Structures are given as C-alpha cells and as structure tokens.
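Predict structure. Chain length: 341.
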Amino acid sequence: MKESDSQRIKSKPTIVDVARLAGVSFKTVSRVINNQSYVGDATRTRVLEAIDALSFVPNMGARTIRGGRHMTIALLFPERKSQYQMEVQDAALGACRNAGYHLIAESLAAEVLQNKGQIAAQLSDLRVSGFIVMPPVCDSHELIETLQELSLPYSRLAPGEHLKSGAEVVVDDAAAVRTMVDHLWSLGHRRIGFIVGNASHTSSRIRLGAFLDHFARLAGTVPLDMVRQGDFTSRSGFDAATDLLDLPDPPTAIFASNDEMATGVISCALGRGIAIPEKLSVCGFDDSPVASLIWPPLTTINQPLSEMVHAAVQQLIRPRSNRRVELDLGLIVRQSTGPVP
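Prediction complete.
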C-alpha cells in the first residue's frame, strides 16, 4: 500500500476508508472484523494491514476487537425533523434510561440513504450496541442491507413492509384506518375527505390504500375526489382542507393521516366559521400530545409509542427476545367527531 494513499485518509477512518485502501468492499472488511469465512488469506491480510495503517477501531456492533460492551443505542431518523420524530426520541430516551443505556440520535440525509457506501461511512463511526430505525428510513433497502452487511444489530420501528431478517416492532395501520372509517360511517358520514401523508413514507401509501379500499367496500365507489395530498405538517393539512371545503359538495368529515395535519384542518374550518363537530367532523392518527390539547380535543388513532420503543430497546439488549413484536392501535373518540349535520 502506498504511503500517499493512507495520507489521503481523513483523521477518523471509517470502514469505507479501510475497504478503499485494501481494495475490497466494506462487506469484506466486515467479514474480516467478525472473523467470518468466505475471505481468502491474501485478502484478509490486506484488510488487516489497512486496519493497522489507518489505526481503525471497528464498531462494537460489529464485534469490536477491543472487547467490552457499549451501553449506547442509536436512533436513526430522516434528516427532516417532525413532531413524530421528537415523540419517538423522547420515548427512546426514557426506555434507554430505564435499561441503563444512553441514547444518541443520528439523522440520515436523503442522498446518504441512496448510497450504501455513504451509509456505512456514517454509521461505522458510531460506538453503539444497536440501532432503532424509525420510519420512513426503516423502509430504506440500502440502509437495512448495509446494517446487515456490517453485522450491526437493529430494530425497525413500524416498518411498512415485513422482512425475514432483523428485529421489528409492527402495527397494523390498515386495520386502524378501517376502524376510523367505520366510526365516521356509524355517525352517518358518507362524504369523507382524506388527507394523505408524505408521499415518501410507506405508511402514507398503506393508509391511503386502506381508506380507498374500505370506503369502496362500504359505499361501492372510490372517493378519489375527496383525497388530497399532504406532507404530515399542519400547513399541508390547512391547505388540503381549504381545497376540500371549497368543493361544491364538501365533505362532512375529514380524516387526516396524522394529528399534525388534523390541527391544520381544524384551524382552516374554524377560520371559516365552520363549527366542529356540529358542521364538520375531524379526526387524525397517532394520538400525539396535541390531540388532547387542541380544541375541540381530537378523535384519533392511538399509536403506543412508548410501548413500541420499549420493545425495540429490549430486542437490542436481549438478542433472544421476540424478533417480531406486534402492538395494537386503538380508536380514541373525543369531541372533534359527531353525527352528520
């Protein structure tokens, strides 16, 4: 190996730097670190020489050669912050503290999630026992494949699709949507608006699909004219509600895919002098803190974040625990929904 090659490596080398210097993939470096087979003697020697040349210290999650145990868990979340992410982070902090662990929060930029090498470079520097991967990054194939190739323990929180490998804590979004539609239907509502969440989230597609399928089952038609795109923000809920309420035959109820968008719907309606729930029923999803604080209090779907995160932490610190935990979502009826006017 040329001296000039090692001089170009940054001060804190990563597994990608080792792979580049040794002329192999980062998966091969991971196999050497974990003392796995399928690596030839010559290749193994090159990797070990690169590790020595760079003074690289492997991640504990990859069975660090230093031994010991890191009492830290990392929460992986998208670069764009949200109220949901803050609630998950608070729940994770409490769950880790109760287990005697520390928590670090690590955001992943959209461009990083498209490149396995960049993912490996960012995560290999972290000295953690495992990763809680929250939506929507938990549905990134590049991220999950990288964690697997680096032998890094992880638990996926509310993923949109089931994978055979790795731990996961799952909820049934589709069933929850059907429950909410049934609630509105029982109140006599037939014109029900639906506001979709961020299009990049798998959960958004699942919730929309469940709404359209179940409504069609009940009414015999698909209410595409009552669907508007949002992005999980209050502003997008306000804008979507504006479009829906401007329709010649507006909805008598609006179901937003999360509570934050539902607050935007309520703001829009009240600004127009539309009484809730007397003239318009509004409901959300998540049962976030704002749901019980806003007026009128919001009918919503309870997502048990504390239980979900606790289960994920247990999966990481007790490797023999259940690798798939499924938790129920519940309907919370408050004052924002009522009989059709």
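Summary: Confidence is low (pLDDT under 50) at residues 1-10, 60-68.
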